[in-house]
Specification:
This protein is mainly α. About 80% of the residues lie in helices and about 0% in strands. The protein has 16 helices and no strands. The termini are far apart.
Length: about 375
Amino acid sequence: MIAAQLTARLPMGMMSLAVLLHVQHTTGSYGEAGLVLAAASVGQAIAGPVTSRWMGRWGMRPVLTLTTIVCAVAITALAFVPPVLPVYVVLGALAGLATPPVQSAARTIYPKLVNSTQLTPLFSLDASLQEIIWIVAPVVVTFVSTQISTVAGLLMIVLILLGGGAWFILSPEVGRVRIPRSRRAFGRVLLRPAVLLATVVGFLLIGACASVEAGVVATFGHDGAEAGIVLAVFSLGSLAGGLLSGRIPISRWAMARRLAIFTAGLALTLVSLNVWWLGGSLVVAGIGIAPALAVLFAMTSASVKFSDTAEAFGWIGTGQLIGAAAGSAIAGFLIDGAGPVGAFLTATAFAVVGLVVSVVFVRGFPDLRFRDASPIPDTEPVHLP
């Protein structure tokens, strides 16, 4: 299941770069490429909770199949249509809106795959292994798009999307697990403190990570290997942190402790932008990322009814997407004004706010040391004769 969902999600780690490279290549404008990318990001942000909730109404396989096909068609069309900006924007938005809710589906299925004691380590493993997407995907799509063609880069995404999507959709677990239809109004799951906190903290955490990426690229440029190596080290730190923390019980203070490590590492980047210092600082920061994400996933699962888990994870994904866009945008403005250090100031500020939120609202985080992270069972009245 983990391998299938990682493969199905791999195109999402490629799409932004591939679209940016293709639109810039065909139109000659980074500004137009940014507009298309923004349309795709807005589409993804809107679709997250909506398509996740649909899985409770129509089933996981129908929703995943439909969105996978529509997304593949939109990306294929983007590869071949004439370079007309309004058409590109519409296709980018459609690809974003049709992004398959694989992440929400997988994390909804996990509680049905393992016993209660294994669920938190499974969330930690999942958060760690998703770093593979952010290490492998950008390198592969950049190589194909620049060495072969941008059309080839987009078509590669389509092939992986269809192949990985089919692997995940046809997994027996996807067919066996049925999400009950939620009786709550759309969006009401956000009223649960744990879900709202997970969405806000996810926004801040991923906003900080996006700022770091912008800062590393601004520091070392696109031509040398330093940027790629430093970002890979950042992801490897997260991978290691997630694997090492999998068995540590999650208390109310778990998020604050993990964000403290993340924040300390980012604060160290402000000392020097030397490649060795920056790499070492980001290893420290990375150690806190996957463990913090594991807390987000576990606290969300443990705080909602099973019928609401997919929508809850959809909202968290939307928060993270908006955080990535905000972090990149703010870092970009500060890079123009103050140089690369502006991006690391942005990242540190995002992390500090996240740490403050996790301390001030610590009572909103569930204590999972003496209970498992399984969702609350759905119950309904039984009518007796």
